[in-house]
## 1
Amino acid sequence: MRRITLINGDGIGPEISDAVVKIIEASGLKIDWDIQTAGADVIEKEGTPLPERVLNSIKENKIALKAPVTTPIGKGFRSVNVQLRKALDLYANLRPCKNLPNVKTKFDSVDIVVVRENTEDLYAGIERQVDNDTAESIKVITRKASERICKFAFDYAIKNSRKEVCVVTKANIMKLSDGLFLESYRKIAENYPEIKKREILVDNLCMQLVQNPSQFDVLVLPNLYGDIVSDLCAGLIGGLGVAQGANIGLDYAVFEPVHGSAPDIKGQNKANPTALLLSAIEMLKYIGEFSYADRIEKALFKTLANGIFTADLGGTASTKDFTDAIVQNL
Ligand code: NAI
């Protein structure tokens, strides 16, 4: 039986994790969940929101499904998410954004995959206070990280029968840093003659995305643009409750929804488990369980098509009602 680390998070994390585990169990797929607690709830006992045992579990199992974890503000704790990505070198952030049946959005036929570089750029955390009135943040772009994320995007395109990989930069202004990212894209792209190439500046991309998003297929971006554009794309398909994600490296992969721990609706049986479920479906595809992934996806789509929605999508179903409906549809 496949053993997978399950970080059930805090806030709404445990509720949506229970829902997803129940749905996967009902599909007939047997998974040995290695449940690891992390986040706000473990700080008091273990002194850190990300105890070493969590990292060890992922290192052993290679794959994790992760519910959201609260980052306490102003208490000196680094974000669990940032720590995880660094410690496991999860260099690719993958966010597929596709319209869901019956979920009302401004545009139909959105089917975009955002591939974001996850380790450097302005998020490298290299900042200094020059004087009282001046602060600097350094934007770091390396050939190694740029080439490997572009390769990841093209390999993803091939594996998932996508047609185009579009690189997004501001290389007209940041000629050296974004210029290096673009140069890396062009070099890697030569190895993929079957995939269409496209280059766009990030400001133009944003305008095009809110006017005609269906023209885009796979996007590959440095860290900061990727962070912003992937949330924009989440908005195109119905918002946080349905936006899935994954952080992938050479050795490990952590699948997690885009949203946070939603403390405002914690414990109220209101949370939408769709984003975590879609992340889990992507995880099942990643480990080769395509038939189970497909069955679960169909059951989810049927539930939505039947108009069963949680409150964030304008419905009246509780987390439990929604989960039970998916299980029925399996
Ligand atoms: P949030 O995503 O938790 O919530 C924003 C709004 O969306 C809230 O109104 C919430 O109720 C709603 N929402 C989010 N997910 C939902 C779902 N599945 N179903 C229904 N409604 C949903 O963002 P916020 O409030 O900024 O962050 C709360 C905490 O989560 C913070 O401590 C933050 O650091 C953490 N966080 C953790 C992430 C992770 O673990 N990957 C990602 C983002 C934030």
Note: The chain has two domains: 1-102+239-330, 117-236.
## 2
Amino acid sequence: MKFNFDNSYQTLPESLFSKVLPTKVKSPQIAIFNDTLAEELNLDFSKVNENEIAEIFSGNKIPDNTTPIAQAYAGHQFGHFNILGDGRAILLGEHLTNNNQRFDIQLKGSGITPYSRRGDGRATLSAMLREYIISEAMHYLNIPTTRSLAVIATGENVYREFTHQGAVLTRIASSHIRVGTFEYVRTQTSLDELQQFTNYVIDRHYPHLKSNENPPLALLDEVISKQVDLIINWIRVGFIHGVMNTDNMSIAGESIDFGPCAFMNAYDPRTVFSSIDRNSRYAFGNQPNIAKWNLATFAETLLPLFDANPEKSIALAEKVLDSFDEKYRSKWMQMMCNKLGFSLLQDNDLDFIKTFLTWMNQQRADYTNTFLALQGEQFQSDELYSSNEFQYLYTEWLKRVELNEGGLNEALTIMKQHNPVYIPRNEYVEEALESASQKNDFSLFNSLLDVLKNPYTFKEEFGKYQYITPNFDAGYQTYCGT
Ligand code: AMP
Ligand code: MG
């Protein structure tokens, strides 16, 4: 096994990172290792024993040919600007796959760094397993996301409200460059360095923009499109990120940082699970607004590069930012039509979508299962779906899909590709995490992972994962900073 490291980030100005090694841990042990992902990365661990794997991915043993760093960044957290940085993470290196795809290999929970502020640099086993299972679920839902290669239990305690087992997660990402990284570069370095950094990001993520007449402006436009696509995907499956601070928004358009995130069951755009989101800033239905706010912050960091004349620069930025609403609206419409199996937009489609969503909201109907009920294979006997109101909507829907060129069959084919049968239901995530992190029993965790690896295909034996205890969500809360 050999990493193919090529650490390009270290060619950037030194103020953007610090060379720092992980802090060694007492007795590292594999909690979970992702063989499939290792293979995709062209990393062959078949001849590496488990102790050695645990040594490498706990940060105890640094592979050859790399100099680990912690990255500096800033960010607006709940609207307030702060200087941040990898406070508990270390970039082991940038690994190139056989076809030259570049991935950050990052250890999270690996000890303190110059950016740790008052934190201990550590992470709990439960929180890292949570990131593992949710990020893998996102991947199999076909949503751009960072991924998880391993969780290593450290054999040390981590102190939060209670005492927890410590762990280190190995996170794989196209990069860890965030909107907040641009905020750092813009506020803490020179204009030359901003230009250099922007060129680096374009080279690394969007090389086709280099020939554009205004590459920084094209970058803004491209990042907007990527974020619109991402949020639309979150809305499609009912995902609530929970802490969409600008430091948790990736320039590559991947879902990143699965702290207090959760999936919505009963449909309500106001749904919030995060214990610290008291003003519902990051509620399910507010995610597009926040994305736009974050992108405006991103645009601000690039202003000096759009044009030498500040007024002209602002006008250029505003024009591109204004495209967000239309991009979002048309992608949202397309996504909802896919969920309902409507091909080629018809005049009344928007009316139907609104009526359907309003009914779901009023009934607090399950977001995932209601689309499956339309698909007609499941839930026919549920009281809610045999009600007159739903049956009326169903009849209207049937009339509409008959207008597709391929009628109902075409609708069902489209719907099956866009409506998951299985999502990580909060109740099952919690029980799996509890028994893995407190009893070292991974059977529930592995069963849930199996279900989430094929989220679009119904399997009789997975049936229970479609239901949660009624009202389980009513008192459900997720926690940050774990
Ligand atoms: P997050 O809420 O996980 O996105 O983290 C926000 C910031 O706090 C980032 O700069 C993290 O690196 C830092 N941070 C979170 N937890 C810890 C910790 N236990 N020790 C040090 N820094 C932390
Ligand atoms: Mg973060």
Note: The longest strand covers residues 147-159.
